[in-house]
Amino acid sequence: MAIEVGQIRNIGIVGQGGAGKTSLADAILFTAGVTTRLGSVDDGTSSFDFEPEETRRKLSLTTAFHHAPWKKHELTLIDTPGYINFLTDGLNCMRACTAAVMVLEPHAGGVKVEGERVWSRAEQLSLPVVAFVTKMDRENADFDGALKDLSDNLQAKPIPIQLPIGSADTFRGVVDLLAMKALIAQPNGQVKEEAIPAEMADAAKAARERLMETAAETDDALVEQYLEHGELTVEQLLPALRAAVHDARFVPVLCGAGAKGFGIAPLLDFLVEFTPAPGAHGAAGGEDPKNGEPIEREMQPTAPFSAVVIKNIVDPFSGKLSVFHVVSGSVGGDTQVLNVAKDAKERLGHLLRLEGKKQTPVEKLTTGEIGAVAKLKDTEAGDTLSDEKAPIRYPGLVPVSAAISFAIEPKTKGDEEKVVLGLHKLIEEDPTLKMQRDAQTKEIIVSGVGQLHIEVAVEKLKRKFGVDVELKAPKVPYKETIKGTAKAQGRLKKQTGGRGQFGDCWLEVSPLPRGSGFEFVDAIVGGVVPRQFIPAVEKGVREALHEGVLAHNEVIDVRVKLYDGSFHTVDSSEMAFKIAASMGFKSAIQQAKPILLEPVMAMEIAVPDDCMGDVIGDLNSRRGKVLGVDPKVGTQVIRALVPMAEVLRYSPDLRSMTSGRGAFTMEFDHYEELPAHLVDKVVKEADERRAQQH
User: Fold this and answer.
1) Which end of the chain is more exposed for a tag (fewer CB within 10 A), N or C?
2) Where in the chain is the domain with CATH 3.40.50.300?
3) d(Cα 692, Cα 118) in Å, to the nearest integer?
4) How big is the chain by its Cα radius of gyration, in Å?
5) What is the arithmetic mean of pLDDT over 507-514?
6) Are 261 and 268 in contact (CB under 8 A)?
């Protein structure tokens, strides 16, 4: 039977790594009767962490999906990674959520940078957030500490819907502030309703009053009713609470012990009763792909079809699976749609519903549902699929900058092509991975969010594509140039019997301003070098630019003037003049005060106020130049220029200095002269590498 849009809930299970998100998601499946056994991350039996890299590390590396029916509603569970290296995948998938359950550990100081980013993303999406304080059965569990975290670190407004009865060893249930009853956990996993314990009566009464105050704030008439009578009826309280949750005016807080499956049924009741269905907030905002003008699309099954691809899953055997969220309309299998981002037509084959690592065929997907389809030709994560007659484009992926790079080298010679093909497939699945081939160093450079991110990619390369590689720090792409002007002759004369080889040219080299590149000047008069050989001279110089005289790096920002020479009517040739030009150029730059140039990166580093001094001091020790500091709420954004050689492994150092709360972006800015005291070291390393290669 087709599901009604009003019965759909897409629930993101979000929060930082280690909070207990996946354990909660597994407990929801068990409570809803989807599984017959409570899955466990520690035992490797989770329905969500099924990739070998996840089961081995006991942490989520990618977003996983599953479905749970509850009281005539269909919940799609979106279990997101919480560790910083893999967080972006979850942030992208949050756009498909109708609400998020933010999983918190029960103590103060628990919210880290990942929790802050998830919260910021929810605010950006105007997403209702329900907090679930889990692990209440653990030692030192502190429910009030978790509430304080929400208000102090996230500037949220937490309002308890439940209060825990006891904690750690004494945790045995919760007080339901809506029903004003105690829900006591039973050994068989069921819940027994009882009267509120006498010792909690006052706390429950005070919390209930705060709940009613918050609900009353949604409506002036309710405020008047509450002030006059000091009470709201259940008929008044529930709709007011529902409106407040829908509008994300506060964070309702529930609690339990996810790994033991306690507190799950009340959480599910709350989600279906109080969080919105797809389209509850009206139309989705996008733009007209023809002119970029903003347009809106009603999030209803009767509207034209549109969907956003939220991620790809790549399997070396079955190919690429595109996971998409239907924003409007409905779609069946074997349907042609428009990929608006690529302006290309795609045919949707068999539609699938994701159930952990399995896929179930479905005939149709409607507004709000999340599904998948195999083998789309041109479609990438972030693309919009749309009815050809009513195109609309929605915003793309959350942008993310690579924080760390490694050179990647196959352990077996000849596997370079397999490495590149495998990486391309992994990047389809995880756009936060980047790959490039450095034209100067000839290395394959893979970049990612952190070292663990890259290490997992290497494991997947081996498991999925059979390529074993090792990681090395990338070579810094130094350049060479000159500071002076010099002249030199390049002369080639060979006689080997029969026709010989003769080329003779005089070159003058001089420096150009930084960033100018290369300039060739033909100053020949009187035909001392025939016109047909001058292009060969320029070609010989250009080829010689690839290898300087100090550390064998590319030479940049030089002018080369050909001003004299001679030729032989029989023995001169283009090849002879090309070789002569190369010889003359190398001789000239040796006399023209050659220097090494190093790449300098522009960095923006966001750090907490209390870490700013340490981070700036560290940048100074790395030969960095701080350009300025821009204050933001609770954060300082430091702008700096730092030599690339000093920040190849900056990510773990920043994490250590800021206790994981710092973040940075980095991009190439310019080249500048390498300080003299470092030149010998770079030259020596380059000579050693060259000797090994030969």
Assistant:
1) N
2) 9-178+249-274
3) 48
4) 32
5) 95
6) no
Q: What is the pLDDT of residues 97-125, one digit of tens each?
A: 999 999 998 876 667 778 888 999 999 99
CATH 3.30.230.10 residue window(s) in the chain: 479-592
CATH 3.30.70.240 boundaries in the chain: 597-678
Q: What is the largest CA-CA distance in the chain?
A: 117
User: What b/e sequence results for 391-410 when a residue is b if at least 16 CB atoms lie within 10 Å of its CB, and e otherwise?
Assistant: bbbbebbbebebbbbbbbeb
pLDDT at 318: 67
Return residue ranges of the chain for CATH 2.40.30.10. 298-386
**Topology of 479-592 in CATH?**
Ribosomal Protein S5; domain 2 (3.30.230)
Domain 9-178+249-274 has CATH 3.40.50.300: yes
Bridge partners, residue 160, by sequence = 253
| Residue 473 · residue 652 · CB < 8 Å | no
- Tell if the pTM clears 0.90, that is, is over it: no
Yes or no: say if 551 and 682 are a contact pair by the CB < 8 Å rule. Answer: yes
Please tell me the CATH code under which domain 597-678 is placed. Answer: 3.30.70.240
- CB-CB contact of 190 with 181 (8 Å): no
Q: How confident is the model at residue 139 (pLDDT cuts 50, 70, 90)?
A: confident
Q: Is the dihedral of CA 327, 333, 337, 341 positive or negative?
A: positive
Single out the residue of 168, 170, 169, 150 nearest to residue 159, CA to CA: 150
- What letter represents residue 676's amino acid? A
Say which CATH class 298-386 falls into.
mainly beta
